[in-house]
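Exercise 7.
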Amino acid sequence: MPLASVVFAEARMLLNDVAAKLYTDTILLPPIKKAYRELQQNLVDNGVSVARDQSTALTVGSTVEVLDFASTPALPSNLLYPIHLDEKLVGQADTDYVPMTERAWPPDLTPSDLRQYWSWLEDEIKIPQATGSTVIRVRYWGGLAAITGASTDIPILDSETFLASRTAAIAAFSLGKQPTLAAILNEDAEKALAILLSTSVKNRQALPTRRRPFRSFRFGSRFFFGGR
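Solution. The predicted structure, written as tokens, is:
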């Protein structure tokens, strides 16, 4: 499992700063964090498991219609996208969980004992009201632990080439004010990402997920940052 220090060193080589006179680990930390989030989002979009996780049992009050990171109860802090929701009545055994149905938009229903439906909109889970509190369990794609420094492990195999190129591209554009170099590095990053996704998808053909093209990274008002 590679360390972030490997990515830092390769990014500095691409930026012609092997001695770290300008692009120190501290300077490169925000760019690598951004590149790492983009990589996880692309993997999830293409049906590649980054970290599948499950929430604790969430006891949801009868009038609650939104679950997000600030609600009571709150969604797990590392949630990227929900995959599946189950629910049961308060006091029932775990064997009594029943699946909820995902809808594109929240239905307008007369409240009943169970909520039955859920929608994922604007980074929130929307649910109907119920006649009483219910218990909801969320299965989701979760983000990996954030990169905090050179000693952080990166558990995504063969990701160093993409991360180094993308980190260097972000740094060259937003910090070094070198748009031409940033564009060249970004092309390298996209090629590396395409290879990484192709390899990862082939290794996980059994996943029942529709694959989507990887997110491209462009210049613009968002400082050459791809992703959300």
